[in-house]
Amino acid sequence: MAERHYTRQLATIISIDAVGFSRLMGIDDELAVAAFEERRDIITDSCGAFGGRTFGVAGDSIMAEFGNPIEALRAAFDFQDRIVALNASVAEDMRMPFRAGINTGDVIVREGRLYGDDVNIAARLQEFAPHDGLAISETTWHHVKDKTAAVFTDLGEFMLKNIALPVRVLIVGRGGNGAATAAPLAAVAPGHYKPFAKGPPAIAVLPFQGDGSEPDVGYMADGVAEDIIYGLSNTRWLSVIAKGSSFQFRDDSLGTRLIGNALGARYIVSGTLARFSGQIRLNASLTDTSNGRLVWSQRFDRDLVDIFSLRDQIGSEIVSILDKEVDRAEQVRTFQVPWESLETWQLVRRGRWHMNRRTRRDTEIALEFFDKAYQEDPNSSAVLNELAWWYFWRAWLRFGDSDDLDKVEAFARKALLMDSLDARPHAYLGAADIMRGQPASAAEHLAEAIHINPSFAFARSAMGSARLLLGDAAGAIPFFLDTERLSPFDLYRFHNLGELAVAYCFVEDWEAAIAAADRSLNLSPGYFYARFLKIGALMRSGRRDEAKRELAIFSTRHPDFSEQRIRWIPFVDAAKNNFLIANFDQAKSIA
């Protein structure tokens, strides 16, 4: 075998990549190639002027080698300034910006080509750079930090593809009077942020982008984002990055993954808002920054009437959705961690995953996880709240078991001692009072829960139930409708729709009662109360044949049904129980 001849040397490598080259090729391939070659010549000229040389041109990527890191940085600033000026002279959709990554390290040189991990690191770094921007490694930063007026923004350490050790990445912008690519991020001090520390995840809400020239669209976009930050902070279990930090990232060209790493946030909320023809359209999304995966996105179209009430409505709706989407994502994430290594908050998420399956066995497993979490941290408000909910759920299945309700109250009151601004204990105390037949007391607890967290769908549904028991069906309906808006995919939505059907029965809107009961049964066909209500509403609306068919299904599914189940419901006025039973009995009389 022939002997291979190569040398090793210390070098600084710039990896340069054209942004949007494939898009331009799709529009006009000849024009795209010409534009690339024109900019490539600029890059080659700048690199040569500062003592470097280009090599390894492949497709829309270029490599350059320098002996001095300072000269490499100056060359990168020079060719990017020249390309920015060139792009400004062409139509916006035909511009071709370039981004670059710089790394300094040991390379192998053979026949004019450079090899080694440090070359590969430069190639990976350019993927972090914004359009017309520059990313460097910590190694290069140590060489240039005291010899330039550039502004450096530390994004933290990353594991790069096929690189064994983590690499610290910094974004570089011009200092002084030069272009300030990184200036909006300057307050992020190098080394300050540590990505994804142990403990519950953090979420950051970026300023929403206003799509349009009107200033009030931008103001409203900021207002919605602020409302979401405020609402998420009231969920208590989720850490929320302060507006002062997250609002620095108005330019999202860095990408959510890098912004999340800089802020130490596992989840990023971003969006756009546009106004047209008396309406607004808001697009919002939730991204998992650990893997770049889009977790959730949704479009909201609303009539533009009262800006402030509109902000409240959309903001609270998004908060409720985000709370559940992050919770769901974290439940799934716990399965990537060995059971014995789960932290307290992860035990809670795993328990919630089993709880949401709603089987007898899963419910038992959920309690095991909650109990283990309680043993590890008996003063955790998150754990105390989950135990309160678990015993409330079992009490509901057992039609108000007093021992379980006592446990709900004990855990909820202890949770309040740990965190008096948590809405959940107030809601669980209110729910327990409903089960005990004390709706007036329940309403007080629930009003406090809603005051603390207006986006708390469970509290709004429970308030509707309290109003029903007090005899105010018309006043209950808005609470159930708010719950539908705030939590349209809630696991326990079947119950809220069942309660809505009751309210419509009491105001004698039979068609609405039937529709609500149908929606409840679509979600939970075995829910006896919804079918019971539907049968009575069908009879009162004159649809006797349909009522008979539903009664046959009811009798098959619930052969042990007794009217005592309905008499157990603690309406303040027993005439309400009699009213519902009489509706149902009409169907029995014709069967």
Give the overall form. elongated
Distance between the termini: 96 Å
The number of distinct β-strands equals: 14
Mean pLDDT: 85
Residue share in helix: 40-55%
Number of helices: 23
The low-confidence runs, each spanning 5 or more residues with pLDDT under 50, are 177-197
Strand content: 15-25%
Radius of gyration: 31 Å
Q: Largest sheet, if any? A: 8 strands, mixed
Find the structural class using helix and strand composition: alpha/beta
Helices and strands, with pairings:
Layout: E1 7-18, H1 21-27, H2 29-49, E2 53-58, E3 61-66, H3 69-87, E4 98-110, E5 113-115, H4 117-125, E6 134-137, H5 138-144, E7 151-158, E8 167-173, E9 202-205, E10 209-211, H6 215-233, E11 239-240, H7 243-246, H8 256-263, E12 267-276, E13 279-288, E14 293-303, H9 307-333, H10 344-357, H11 360-376, H12 381-397, H13 402-418, H14 423-435, H15 439-452, H16 457-470, H17 473-486, H18 493-506, H19 510-523, H20 528-540, H21 544-557, H22 564-567, H23 574-590
Parallel strand pairs: 4-6, 9-11, 9-12, 10-12
Antiparallel strand pairs: 1-3, 1-4, 2-3, 4-5, 6-8, 7-8, 12-13, 13-14
Structure description:
It contains 23 helices and 14 strands. By secondary structure, it is of the alpha/beta class. It has helices at about 20-25, 30-50, 70-85, 115-125, 140-145, 215-235, 245, 255-265, 305-335, 345-355, 360-375, 380-395, 400-420, 425-435, 440-450, 455-470, 475-485, 495-505, 510-525, 530-540, 545-555, 565, 575-590, and strands at about 5-20, 55-60, 60-65, 100-110, 115, 135, 150-160, 165-175, 200-205, 210, 240, 265-275, 280-290, 295-305. Strands 1, 2, 3, 4, 5, 6, 7 and 8 form an eight-stranded mixed sheet that branches. Strands 9, 10, 11, 12, 13 and 14 form a six-stranded mixed sheet that branches. Helix 16 runs antiparallel to helix 17. It starts with 6 loop residues before the first strand and ends with a helix.
